[in-house]
From TrEMBL:
<dbReference type="GO" id="GO:0000976">
    <property type="term" value="F:transcription cis-regulatory region binding"/>
</dbReference>
<feature type="domain" description="HTH lysR-type">
    <location>
        <begin position="4"/>
        <end position="61"/>
    </location>
</feature>
<dbReference type="Pfam" id="PF03466">
    <property type="entry name" value="LysR_substrate"/>
</dbReference>
<comment type="similarity">
    <text>Belongs to the LysR transcriptional regulatory family.</text>
</comment>
<dbReference type="GO" id="GO:0003700">
    <property type="term" value="F:DNA-binding transcription factor activity"/>
</dbReference>
<dbReference type="InterPro" id="IPR036388">
    <property type="entry name" value="WH-like_DNA-bd_sf"/>
</dbReference>
<keyword id="KW-0238">DNA-binding</keyword>
<dbReference type="InterPro" id="IPR000847">
    <property type="entry name" value="LysR_HTH_N"/>
</dbReference>
<protein>
    <submittedName>
        <fullName>LysR family transcriptional regulator</fullName>
    </submittedName>
</protein>
<dbReference type="InterPro" id="IPR036390">
    <property type="entry name" value="WH_DNA-bd_sf"/>
</dbReference>
<keyword id="KW-0805">Transcription regulation</keyword>
<dbReference type="InterPro" id="IPR005119">
    <property type="entry name" value="LysR_subst-bd"/>
</dbReference>
<dbReference type="Pfam" id="PF00126">
    <property type="entry name" value="HTH_1"/>
</dbReference>
<keyword id="KW-0804">Transcription</keyword>
Amino acid sequence: MTAPDSESLRLLVLVGELGSIGAAAAELRISQPSASKRLNRLERQLGLALLERTRQGCTPTPAGEVVCGWARDVLAHVDGLMNGVRALRAQHESKLRVAASMTVAEYLVPRWISLLREALPEVHLELDVTNSAAVAEAVRHGQADLGFIETPDPPEGVSVRYVARDRMLVIAPPGHPWAKLRRPLTPGELAATPVIVREHGSGTRETLHRALADVGTTPVAPLLELRSTTAVRNAVVAGAGPAVLSTLAVATDLAEERLVEVPVADLDLRRPLHAVWRSGLQLTGPAAALLATAMRAPD
């Protein structure tokens, strides 16, 4: 004997409550012949006569009364299950977990989130601000639905989409000797000078190392190693030494002359910014909407 389906049980219960196959069929928006066939199949399936059919209507048999009682319990659990699933789905679809590297998180993501919330005000967004390597790990392990990174080479094991292009600058405090140079630095001079850098795994640091490697040189040990873009910027403003940071992070300081840009000859410090998500998954819902927002924003 196979278990009856929930819709057949629901039909049986309604017939018992309404006293008519036609009324129960109308309630479920099915035809009366279809309802009759379903009930006949249910009786054959269970091996029991469940309904007493007369010209005045239908009433449950004694066995049918017992089965109707059990069916009500089953349907209550089924309805509870489906309500719970719908609640979980609504919660999942209205929640978006984003991980972003420091520069992107501080200077680009706030605008993207503002635009997203204009279109989807019900979305609850959680933002984890970390370095590019940690963003990729969060995406790989399902801890973030969407990530944004600034490494020159996209990581393996994730789906990748180009979002924008960023440019990094060598910056120094106004009193630093580099601020007074009348010629561009050479890549060798930059590599030979200890500068303030971000930690390993940072896209900013990896971009600098890659650019120097492309011209055949390797940087010396750093002057300071700090764990955020803001910390590096503050150290340079305080006069601790030069650094290499995104133009996004220092544009205001340059305009207000708290920092000085130091040109470097023959060194490409541009870098792509990418969105990443778990490999093999197709973005949907708020994650897809945020990616579209980021890609529409000015480059």
